[in-house]
Amino acid sequence: MSFSLNQSVLTESASLRTSAITNLNDTRAQEALGKAKAIVFALWNGSGWATVEQLANYFQCSIQAIKHIYERNSKEFRANETKKLTGKDLSDARSNLELPSRTSQARVFSPLGTLRIAMLLTESEIAGQVRTIILDLVAAVPTVTPEPPPITVPALPPVEQRLHTLVQAMKTLAELTGGRLNPYMEQQFKDYAGNLLAEHNRKMLTPTDEKWLGVVNFAESELGKKVPISGSHYRGHQKLTRTHNVS
């Protein structure tokens, strides 16, 4: 019987074998094995285990083939996939696993470990069927595309701080140029200051009048910028307008 060439990804890559069974537990692993052929795992220490002899019978191959597969790939098997029973563990499990009394040690495999054997064993038709089942399970898992992290735009400093920085820059440039700025550059500074004031005016419709008056005083004393207190360009509080009208 021929199987899909896609099975080669499992027989050739240790990382893909591990990835294929990462989301499976022993119960699901045993269900997958059972779809190809019935297999019974003896309960010991709260988990199901099968001996090398049982796996050889399941995969219809020699005991030596199972041993050779494990010895060649032993570093790949995780702690919950295989165990070497000796001493007390062997004595406790001997009856459940039907081990001969003369056995001094035994290698056993969990359902997950048996799936890994199936992905490594290329000379078994049953193992090929199991690999097909594993690939179907992997294909059925939806691919989750991680959302890109939100783009964070650095917050600008407060308007007052930007105005202060602008004033200091203007004073420094004036000193470097002998007290006189290039008219074009001076106009650029004034336009930038005007835009900052307009931005602040727009955002500060709800705070106190005192805060708004502080910006007005700053603009008029430091920048020589006349801030209108009435008319279409004024966006301040009505209360502030009334205060100026009274004065």
Can you offer a commentary on this structure?
The chain is an alpha+beta fold. The protein has 2 domains: 5-140, no CATH class; 159-246, no CATH class. Helices cover 57% and strands 6% of the residues. It contains 12 helices and 4 strands. The chain has a 4-stranded antiparallel β-sheet. A hairpin with a 2-residue loop joins strand 1 and strand 2. Helix 3 (26-36) packs across helix 7 (111-120) and helix 9 (159-176) packs antiparallel against helix 10 (183-203). It is rod-shaped, with a radius of gyration of 39 Å.
Keywords:
single chain; 247 residues; alpha+beta; 2 domains; 4-stranded antiparallel β-sheet; 4 strands; rod-shaped; disordered N terminus; disordered C terminus
Question: Helix and strand layout, with pairings?
Answer:
Blueprint: H1 8-12, H2 14-21, H3 26-36, E1 42-44, E2 47-51, H4 52-59, H5 63-72, E3 82-85, H6 87-97, E4 106-109, H7 111-120, H8 125-140, H9 159-176, H10 183-203, H11 209-222, H12 238-246
Antiparallel strand pairs: 1-2, 2-4, 3-4
Helix pairs in contact: 3-7, 3-8, 4-5, 7-8, 9-10
